[in-house]
Amino acid sequence: xxxxxxxxxxxxxxxxxxxxxxxxxxxxxxxxxxxxxxxxxxxxxxxxxxxxxxxxxxxxxxxxxxxxxxxxxxxxxxxxxxxxxxxxxxxxxxxxxxxxxxxxxxxxxxxxxxxxxxxxxxxxxxxxxxxxxxxxxxxxxxxxxxxxxxxxxxxxxxxxxxxxxxxxxxxxxxxxxxxxxxxxxxxxxxxxxxxxxxxxxxxxxxxxxxxxxxxxxxxxxxxxxxxxxxxxxxxxxxxxxxxxxxxxxxxxxxxxxxxxxxxxxxxxxxxxxxxxxxxxxxxxxxxxxxxxxxxxxxxxxxxxxxxxxx
Length: 310
What we know:
This protein is of the alpha/beta class. Helices cover about 35% and strands about 20% of the residues. The protein has helices at about 50-55, 55-70, 80-85, 100-105, 140-150, 160-175, 190-200, 210-215, 255-265, 265-275, 305-310; strands at about 40-50, 70-75, 95, 110-125, 155, 185, 205, 220-225, 235-245, 275-280, 280, 285.
C-alpha cells in the first residue's frame, strides 16, 4: 500500500464509488411515518484510542446519529482490547488498526464484512536533543536499533494495541529485543504514552494523528517520518472496520452495524474524514472510496484456495 501524500486523491468527486455505500439505505425505511425503524437504538463501537482522542469520531458521528435517530457509544481501547470486547459480545462494530489481529478475529468467525476505511502512518518521536541521533533516518528499524544500542529512554504502550503491535513488529524486524532500564512499558493509551515520553525525554512510536492532536502539549518532535511524508512504507497505518458476527453473538445489532459501515465508507463521510484537521493538518486519509474501486471479497492476508484445501 503506497500512501505518499502526493499520490493521494484529494478530490473524491461524483465518480467515486464505495462498495457498501448503499448499506445506509438498508434500514432507513420505517414501519410507519415516524422515522427509521432503528430510531432510539444505540450502536456500540469499540475502537482505538487514536480515532477517539483525536476528536474525529465526535466530529463525524453527529451525521450518522441524526440520519437514523440513534446514538453511537464509542468505547476507546487499544486494538487488542477492542477486539476482545467484541469477542465477548460487548460490541456491534469494531474500528481498529492492526491487520494481523483483524485477520485472526475474522478467521475465528467473530467478525464479518471487513472494509478498508482510512489510513495515516506511524512516526518515531522523541526529544529535539535526539540523544541517540536518529533524526532523518530513512529506516525505522535502523532507528530503533540505534536507540537500543545507545540505551536511550524509550516508552512503549505495552497494551496490545495496534501501535504496540506495530512497535513489536519493528523491533523484531530490527533484530533487537528491547529490555532493561531504558525500555519502559506503560500499559496506557497513546496520549499517556506521549506525555510519559515528554516528561522523561524519551522516544516513542506514535500514530501521526494522535501526535498532531497533542503536539502542543508535549515536548517532542517527529524524528523519523512515515510514508505520508516520504518515510519508510513499514510505518504505514491502515484502519479497518467490521461488523460483529451475529451468528456468534445474537445480541449484536448487525443491521445498525452494517448501516454504520455503509455510512462511514460512503463518499460523503469519507470526504468528512479527509477534511478533518487539527491545527491545519490532516489527521486521516480515507481509503474506502476510489476512482478505481476494487470489489473483490475481503479475505485475510496470506489466504489462498490452496491453503483452504490443506
